[in-house]
Design a protein that fits this description.
The protein contains 16 helices and no strands. With 409 residues, the chain is mainly α. Helix 5 packs parallel to helix 15, helix 6 packs antiparallel against helix 15 and helix 11 crosses helix 13. Helix content is 72%, strand content 0%. It comes from Micromonospora fulviviridis. Pfam families: CitMHS (PF03600). Keywords: Arsenical resistance, Cell membrane, Membrane, Transmembrane, Transmembrane helix, Transport.
């Protein structure tokens, strides 16, 4: 796992078995269990093949968007944006808060929550140290908004991709349905961030001395990366298939690096651990679902198509996400919700997107964030993290599901 100051592409993946990180072993173990389920017949081969076909677009998207994000960071785009955020704040701690919230929210919405956890966490911590302000408020802004700001577009969260296929909404109609719940989730997150983390750290940090503008190491690559990211977002908004949009954008940037900085291109850029983890997770969850989990989830969520059913789905999704993980929680919940009950399905999505905050393993983004904070020497007290994050999970999930029920669409 990288520390602050290392280039993001000096990534956490290892090629030697003896140096594999604990998360690498978890991913490999999960995949091995998934394969074992298929080989033993616990999961029929036909069901496994159907699952792999369903998640293939997700895997393509995830692999290419991480490459795009890693190379974008190497090109200096994130560092330049972070410096611009600090400069724009003009020494005001309150303005820095608003800008950091916007920075984390936009990154999550446009490039997905795992990108925020992987790349924005070290940038935010480095920014705090450069400004001489406590790093914990900026770190908490990153992890909370990586989860709660992941509702607006299908690309913002892997669960969204699954749900958008189920409800048949393209990106623009999806955003039209989810913009109000997304706004409510972000506003509640902002309020609790300020009250519990930013406000107590304000003494001695306001005002601060803004840093100089960041100078990209290669202006051509910087502009290429910026153009590739904008192209990716534009492609998503006009309805291009997500794997195609991220693949084309990543290919453009890879080509730029091949010409300008070939040494930055290496196999470690490919997030093999993430791809293996997601594949194994889906196979294992489907197996468990066939042998009792679907029955439990069906009993807890119920079939009420109204407000009570939506609130139950959101609460169960958030609870199971914090006990297990948000991906299997969504998949298990989706399996027991009637095909036409889109509101209840989206409420489940709210629970598994906004709710996975109270435990470090609740979402992959939270797990990555927690590990990167430890690697960077930022000690976030676990008791305080769990207590405040659980409160946010309950308040934000409830309010966001309510917004889904009363909002447009």
């Amino acid at each position: 796992m990288e520390t602050v100051g290392e280039p993001p592409s000096a990534a956490p993946d290892r090629t030697r078995w003896g140096r594999l990180h604990v998360l690498d072993w978890i991913a490999l173990g999960l995949a091995a269990v998934g394969v074992l389920c298929v080989l033993t017949g616990l999961l029929p081969r036909a069901d496994a093949e159907a699952t792999v076909r369903r998640i293939l677009p997700i895997l393509i998207f995830l692999g290419t968007v991480v490459v795009l994000a890693e190379l974008t960071a190497v090109a200096g785009v994130f560092d330049a944006l972070a410096a611009r955020v600090a400069i724009t704040a003009r020494g005001s701690y309150r303005a820095l808060f608003w800008l950091c919230v916007g920075f984390a929210s936009v990154t999550t919405i446009a490039l997905n929550l795992d990108t925020t956890a992987v790349l924005l966490t070290p940038v935010m911590i480095a920014l705090a140290r450069k400004l001489g302000v406590p790093p914990t408020p900026l770190a908490m802004t990153t992890v909370w908004l990586a989860n709660t700001a992941s509702l607006l577009l299908p690309v913002s969260n892997l669960t969204n991709i699954l749900a958008s296929d189920r409800v048949g909404l393209d990106p623009v109609p999806w955003a039209a349905r989810m913009w109000w719940p997304q706004l409510v989730a972000i506003v509640i997150t902002m309020a609790l961030l300020w009250w519990w983390y930013w406000r107590p750290a304000r003494a001695g940090a306001d005002p601060f001395v803004p840093p100089p503008p960041h100078v990209p190491p290669d202006r051509v690559l910087y502009r290429t990366a910026l153009a590739a990211c904008l192209l990716f977002v534009a492609g998503i908004l006009v309805g291009v298939e997500i794997g195609v949009a991220s693949g084309v954008a990543a290919a453009i940037l890879v080509a730029g690096f091949a010409v300008r900085a070939r040494g930055s291109l290496r196999l470690a850029l490919v997030p093999w651990r993430l791809l293996v983890f997601v594949t194994g997770l889906f196979l294992v969850v489907q197996t468990i679902g066939r042998h009792g989990l679907d029955t439990v989830m069906g009993t807890l969520i119920g079939a009420d198509p109204g407000a009570a059913g939506a609130l139950r789905a959101g609460g169960v999704g958030a609870l199971f996400a914090n006990v297990v993980n948000n991906l299997p929680s969504y998949v298990a919940g989706e399996a027991v919700i009637a095909a036409g009950n889109h509101t209840q399905l989206l409420a489940l999505l709210v629970g598994t997107n906004v709710g996975p905050l109270a435990t470090p393993w609740a979402s992959l983004a939270t797990l990555i964030w927690y590990e990167r904070c430890r690697a960077a020497g930022v000690a976030v007290p676990l008791g305080r993290f769990v207590a405040t994050s659980a409160a946010l999970a309950v308040l934000a999930t409830t309010a966001t599901v309510a917004a889904l029920l009363v909002g447009p669409g």
